[in-house]
Amino acid sequence: MAQKKEEDAYMYWTHSENGRTLHRRIYELHIIDRFGRPHRIKGRWLPKAIFTYCGQAYVGEHLAEILLRPESIPDYPLAPPETAGWPTFRDVVNMFIGFMIVVMLRFIIGLSEAM
Q1: Whether 34 and 90 share a structural domain
Q2: How far apart are CA 47 and CA 13, in angstroms?
Q3: Domain that holds residue 90
Q4: How many domains does the chain have?
């Protein structure tokens, strides 16, 4: 269960690296699951706290990796879904304008060669 401050729900994040500790309040957590789908967790779905720790870094290795199970958390869309297929009305208008420009240029070139 998330912490509450007035109307905002948040969680505590504590990160410790090589003896240095960092504390933050997180109001929204974005996670990418193992299938590559993004999840956004906020409000009462946030956990109470997350603690992370990492040690010495090596070239090519991750410092820290947090693995969660977001399957039990409902999906909140990050952005409105793109439901329009191709071509959209704008695409058709742009193709028509481009076609008309090419036809007009060919007509003008044909007139200038006829003179």
Answers
A1: no
A2: 10
A3: 85-115
A4: 2
